[in-house]
UniProtKB/TrEMBL annotation:
The lineage of its organism: Bacteria, Bacillati, Bacillota, Bacilli, Bacillales. This is Flagellar basal-body rod protein FlgG. The keyword Acyltransferase does not apply. It holds the Pfam family Flg_bb_rod. It is found in: Bacterial flagellum basal body. Residues 7-35 form the Flagellar basal body rod protein N-terminal domain. NCBIfam families: FlgEFG_subfam (TIGR03506). Its main location: other. Keywords: Bacterial flagellum, Cell projection, Cilium, Flagellum. GO terms for biological process: bacterial-type flagellum-dependent swarming motility.
């Protein structure tokens, strides 16, 4: 009986966390460069049931009756780094990063992904696909949240004002064609090792080497000025998953109520002394 309580409660907790993840995806459907999270559900180890005090072993040659499930849990939420739709904005500071076919990671079989290099408020290196850039009061190219965009030397980029041009390979030029800097574009071999930190920033916690994609034919990309990469959240699929998750939550809730009613009867009726 108590095992049923635990399994139903675990299912409700897993679906609640899944709903929270899907809700966050839905709320970021219009966030440039946002990568939707995907839930990884896992089952707790099954328990083996054994017959006690019966002739089960003599009849079947074993005391084992079978296995019983002990519930599920949501192990983690991993971002889906599929390219989002490219949207034209006309803003000179919006620089959409379009990546071509990326090589697969030898261990995971997953494709790598390309990112801009960003300096966070602590001066640490982070990565982003949010290409909705701006120019701050000092003339530096930053994200919309004020984090500095870095060039291929790891330095911040001072463009002066919004009157600049960017080539397809990421070279920043003045209106007269004079070079200012080269935008760094980094290849992350295993994007699953990236951890979201908010404001579109990702921290890499993997072991693979992150290399520059600049001039590397095996890591094709283009930068389109005046465009942004939209969120890759699939609204219809997300709503469908939310409805399915809600039904699963309700099913576990009803099972929990049934166990509760059975336990109440066991305590109040079966155990009553007449």
């Amino acid at each position: 009986m108590l095992r049923g309580y635990n399994a139903a409660a675990a299912g409700m907790i897993a679906q609640q966390r899944n709903q929270e993840m899907l809700t966050n995806n839905l709320s970021n459907a219009n966030t440039p460069g946002y990568k939707a999270d995907r839930a990884s559900m896992r089952a707790f180890p099954n328990m083996v049931l054994q017959a006690m005090g019966t002739d089960h072993a003599q009849r079947y040659g074993t005391n084992e009756i079978g296995e019983i499930s002990t519930g599920v849990y949501m192990q983690e939420a991993t971002p889906n780094f599929r390219q989002g739709d490219i949207e034209e904005t006309g803003n000179n500071t919006d620089l959409a990063l379009l990546q071509g076919e990326m090589p697969e990671d030898e261990e995971t079989g997953e494709q790598g992904a390309l990112f801009y290099n960003v300096q966070n408020e602590d001066g640490d290196l982070r990565y982003t696909r949010n290409s909705n850039f701006t120019v701050d009061g000092a003339g530096f190219l930053t994200t919309g949240q004020g984090y500095y965009i870095l060039d291929d030397a790891g330095d911040t980029i001072n463009v002066g004002d919004e009157a600049f041009n960017v080539t397809r390979d990421g070279e920043i030029l003045t209106e007269d064609g004079a070079p200012i800097a080269q935008l760094e574009v980094s290849h992350v071999p295993d994007p699953a090792q990236l951890v979201k930190e908010g404001d579109g920033l990702h921290n890499y916690e993997g072991d693979g080497d992150i290399v520059s994609a600049i001039g590397d034919d095996a890591l094709p990309y283009q930068i389109q000025q005046g465009f942004i990469e939209g969120s890759n959240v699939d609204l219809q699929q997300t709503m469908t998953n939310m409805m399915q998750g809600f039904r699963n939550f309700e099913a576990n809730q009803r099972a929990l109520q049934m166990y509760d009613q059975s336990m109440e009867r066991a305590v109040n009726d079966i155990g009553r002394i007449t």
